[in-house]
Specification:
By secondary structure, this protein is of the alpha+beta class. The chain is built from three helices and four strands. Helix 1 runs antiparallel to helix 2.
Amino acid sequence: YFLVSKTWHNFPYFKEPIFCQLMIEELKIVKRLKKFKLFVWSIIYDHINLLIQPSDEFNISKIMHSIKKDVSRDINYVLLDQYGIEGGVPESHLQIGFFKSALPVF
């Protein structure tokens, strides 16, 4: 499945290298936990692209939920720590709206 997940209002969060690194680390963790194959990925300023094959144990929805929930939480911590922006860590507007729903492209 080729998945594209956009940031909320197309905001360019991934211009910040630390947010890219958080996404990469989250992909590594979720790949191990949810047991999916990750063939190709790219991070663009306002979205991510993934080419994955889910296992029988976890579907695309569960995989994307884990990635989006955890990276949003981590970005919120950085925003709070570095910029004093409060979003209600660990729950926030980013967790709710950081990514639009991932839709498989066939």
